[in-house]
Design goal:
This protein has 657 residues and is of the alpha/beta class. It has three domains: 142 residues, no CATH class; 151 residues, 2-Layer Sandwich (Alpha-Beta Plaits), CATH 3.30.70.270; 274 residues, EAL domain (TIM Barrel, Alpha-Beta Barrel). Helix content is 62%, strand content 14%. It has an eight-stranded mixed β-barrel with strand order 8-9-11-12-13-14-15-16, surrounded by four helices. Strands 2-3-1-6-7 form a five-stranded mixed β-sheet, with helices on both faces. The chain has a two-stranded antiparallel sheet with strand order 4-5. Helix 14 packs parallel to helix 16.
């Protein structure tokens, strides 16, 4: 606002000077023209000089005032006094010039001043009114200025907010872009996961081959195609590896899995691109042949598969030979469903196994053995539910004292129509169907209950109870806890129980087996290695495994009349003694075998020479006779030295207990 007032004042000063300048110049010009005229008209030299001086007195200030106004050298406040001075000079000039001069001249001059001065004053008043108007407009201008400043502030604020909003939108756009990228990546990952899940749902995780679901789906498509195309034929090949369990037990499950992977890679090389190969589970594979010409072609493909599998598999440092049995189900049977072709091929495969042939084609007569096996499985499940199994006991004799040291608990099946069935007929089936767990727990519970009763009746010489443990249960998580729970339930002390495991079962997964057996042994349960010498022994693991006794397999005992077999038994006995393990001989049937074993230092024996497996009542009677030292009268005559050794051994065992 101060700047605006100064500008208005400067403008008023400029107008004032511009109005004074032409008046001053007009006077200067007028008196410049009058000066020679007055000089010429004057009478006498003195009068001329006087008139010229008076004119010059007006001319010089007027010219000076006009020049100063034009050069902006005259301050505006001095403009009015300068005009008054010029008017005074003109008045003086008129007074002195009127003496003897015509009055008209001065009347003209006065008229000039009368006209010029009011004009100048009017212009001055107009400019003052203009200045006053400007002064009255200053508050309005100040308000406008404030409004402009506020508008400018609002504009800057809006610009700042727009910039902030733009930054927010930029950040939101960037975040949205990142979110879209993340969603796109998530969608791609979800699609990939869905594709992988769909693939995994239809393919075997180990071999990458089709699984049972995909195989049955393609089999159903082939079956439906036979309805549309009468000349179309398909066949199912069911393949099962021979002795795969032995390979697993010998080399471990990891090598077994690698063998399955190798087989899964070889099988497609024997087939046509249109055929399907699948892994149904375990060591079982299936092949779907579509649109073949005749039965001879299916046999040729089965032959190629057998030839390819006969080549050795090199896995790590091992060279493994694998064989397989193949069942073939081809042709179109009216009214038969797709799944029944798989069943028929499975039946033909079991026929090939039983006949020892590489492959067999299915025929209706094969149903009888398969049905018998299925019937056996059904009856086995029912037998467990109906408690048709019972336990028999075979005594284990201390050869140093000829007294009963314990019993091995053996299971029998009291079949409702076939009578008593031995374990050789159902144990393998129980392992295949995973019924071995409830069966084993039943044996341990029943035998432990009976052994606890014997321990109460004969507290000093209560028998040790031996129970066989399946290889499948040896690696079962929590099996040790289940066994200890049964002992707590029946009241049998852990020290009165011995679990018997085969060396092949232990060597399949030695670390897992060692941990499980170590847990049992830490609680007092003894560990026996059953059928020692028949499997694949590892002396390194034998020295570290928690084992108390080794049991020589009956096949070695029965063949001790052969010098080579006798040397093997002596080697086993020497090995057991060097390792600090007791030795138990199985299948002792003749006194000669007994004497030979005693001569080797074998501590314990069992077999038909002493007793066949018997029920609990008979075993109790035998223990009663054992209390009177007449359990096996006349079987072994002891020398006095042997009697002393036996008594010392008995006292040592009592001290250890």
């Amino acid at each position: 606002m101060a700047a605006t007032s100064a500008e208005l004042r400067a403008e008023l000063d400029r107008v004032t000077l511009d109005s004074l300048r032409p008046l001053s110049l007009s006077l200067a010009v007028l008196f410049a023209l009058l000066l020679p005229f007055d000089y010429w008209r004057s009478s006498g030299l003195d009068g001329a000089h006087r008139t010229a001086a008076l004119d010059a007195l007006v001319l010089a200030p007027a010219a000076l005032s006009g020049w100063l106004c034009g050069m902006r050298r005259l301050p505006a406040p001095r403009a009015t006094p300068a005009l008054a001075a010029l008017a005074l000079l003109v008045f003086v000039n008129v007074l002195f010039a009127a003496r003897g001069e015509p009055v008209e001249k001065w009347i003209c001059l006065l008229a000039l001043f009368a006209l010029a001065v009011p004009l100048h004053l009017a212009r001055r008043r107009s400019h003052q009114r203009l200045f006053a108007l400007h002064q009255s407009a200053l508050p309005r201008q100040a308000e406008l200025q404030r409004a402009l400043e506020e508008a400018d502030q609002v504009r800057r604020t809006l610009d700042q907010k727009v910039a902030e909003r733009t930054d927010e939108l930029s950040r939101a756009t960037a975040e949205l872009r990142l979110e879209l990228l993340e969603r796109k990546r998530s969608a791609e990952e979800r699609l990939a996961l869905q594709a992988r899940l769909e693939h995994d749902a239809l393919h075997d995780a180990l071999t990458g081959l089709a699984n049972r679901a995909l195989f049955l789906n393609r089999l159903e498509h082939a079956w439906k195609r036979t309805k549309r195309e009468p000349g179309f034929r398909f066949a199912v090949l069911y393949l099962d590896l021979d002795r795969f369990k032995v390979i697993n037990d010998t080399f471990g499950h990891e090598i077994g899995d690698q063998l399955l992977v190798g087989i899964g890679k070889r099988l497609p090389t024997c087939l046509r691109p249109t055929d399907t190969v699948a892994r149904l589970g375990g060591d079982e594979f299936a092949v779907l042949l579509e649109n073949f010409a005749n039965a001879a072609e299916t046999l040729a493909i089965a032959g190629r598969i057998q030839a390819e599998l006969q080549k050795p598999f090199k896995i790590d440092v091992h060279e493994i030979y694998a064989t397989a049995s193949i069942g073939i189900a081809d042709g179109v049977v009216e009214g038969q469903l797709p799944e029944q072709y798989v069943r028929d091929a499975d039946v033909a495969m079991y026929a090939a196994k039983s006949r020892g042939t590489p492959f067999e084609r299915f025929d209706g007569g094969m149903h009888s053995p398969a049905l018998a096996r299925m019937r056996m499985e059904t009856e086995l499940r029912a037998a467990i539910e109906r408690e048709q199994f019972f336990v028999v006991y075979q005594p284990i004799v201390d050869l140093r004292t000829t007294r009963i040291e314990g019993f091995e608990a053996l299971v029998r099946w009291r079949h409702p129509s076939r009578g008593v069935v031995g374990p050789d007929e159902f144990i393998s089936l129980a392992e295949e169907t995973r019924l071995i767990l409830p069966l084993t727990l039943f044996v341990i519970r029943e035998a432990s209950r009976q052994a606890a009763a014997w321990r109460q009746r004969y507290p000093g010489v209560g028998p040790l109870l031996g129970v066989n443990l399946s290889p499948l249960l040896l690696t079962r998580p929590g099996m040790a806890s289940e066994i200890l729970a049964v002992l707590a339930e029946t009241g049998l002390l852990p020290a009165d129980l011995a679990v018997e495991v085969t060396e092949s079962a232990v060597m399949a997964q030695p670390q897992v087996a060692s941990a499980m057996l170590g847990e049992l042994r830490a609680c007092g349960v003894q560990v026996f290695v059953d059928d020692f010498g028949t499997g694949y022994s590892s002396l390194a693991y034998l020295t570290t495994l928690p084992v108390d006794r080794l049991k020589i397999d009956r096949s070695f005992v029965a063949a001790m009349n052969d010098p080579n077999r006798l040397r093997v038994v002596r080697t086993i006995a020497s090995l057991a003694h060097d390792l600090g393990k007791s030795l138990v001989a199985e299948g002792v049937e003749t006194p000669a075998q007994l004497e030979a074993l005693r001569a080797m230092g074998c501590e314990f024996a069992q077999g038909w020479l002493f007793s066949r497996p018997m029920d609990a009542a008979q075993a109790g009677a035998l223990l009663e006779a054992n209390e009177r030292a007449c359990a096996f009268p006349g079987l072994v005559e002891q020398t006095p030295e042997q009697a002393l050794l036996a008594e010392a051994a008995r006292q040592q065992d009592a001290t250890a207990d």
